[in-house]
Amino acid sequence: MERDNVLGHRYKVLDCLSSLPKHILAFHNKDNVTEFVMHELCGDRCFGLDKAAYFIDNPDFNCLKGVAGFSKDEAFGASCNIWDTPEEFSEHMQKAAFNQKVRGVVKESLRAKGKPDEAIVRELAKNLGFNNPGFFSWDMKHDNHGLFIYQKNDLDGELESLFEGLCYLGFCPIF
């Protein structure tokens, strides 16, 4: 039975990840497509995270910017498909306090100052109320650097898949 649960979860994650490219293309004109992708990746339909925040750091422009935040407590209705109700979802995210707190982060590039990712994560996680943060960081196009901070839970077996999913964020425009 345990094996069936694991396979069922993996299928659910694969289904979510494989649907993202068509949604990103269909919603390329929305200035908050990153919030859509974050919500899909972090929600129960995929990785089931409690809290996550996505940042872009560009040393060339000396800017670290919060792009999107997800909090399970503020998730869009479980019975609603965000892709079918984009205006309602966008309005919901404008009111989501954690998302707005993440989006409000704009500061000098910490990478340009030579700070290691661990120090950057500690600083951001403390300000955003993460209790037990984990993170991924990766290089992106245009010399940007992605940083994804999440509240650790029982994801141990899914971390590689989570990182693969985060790469989709690199295809989303940054506003």
Commentary on this structure:
A hairpin with a 5-residue loop joins β4 and β5. It contains six helices and five strands, in the order ααββααβαββα. The radius of gyration is 16 Å and the shape is globular. It has a single domain, classed as Beta-Lactamase, CATH 3.30.450. 41% of the residues lie in helices and 19% in strands. It has a five-stranded antiparallel β-sheet with strand order 3-2-1-5-4. The relative contact order is 0.19. It is an alpha+beta fold and 175 residues long. α1 packs antiparallel against α2. The longest helix has 25 residues. The mean pLDDT is 86.
Key descriptive features of the protein:
175 residues; 6 helices; Beta-Lactamase; 5 strands; alpha+beta; single chain; five-stranded antiparallel sheet; globular; 19% strand
Write the layout of secondary structure elements.
Elements: H1 2-26, H2 33-42, E1 51-58, E2 63-71, H3 86-95, H4 97-103, E3 106-107, H5 117-128, E4 133-139, E5 145-151, H6 159-166
Antiparallel strand pairs: 1-2, 1-5, 2-3, 4-5
Low-confidence stretches: none
Domain count: 1
Number of strand segments: 5
Structural class: alpha+beta
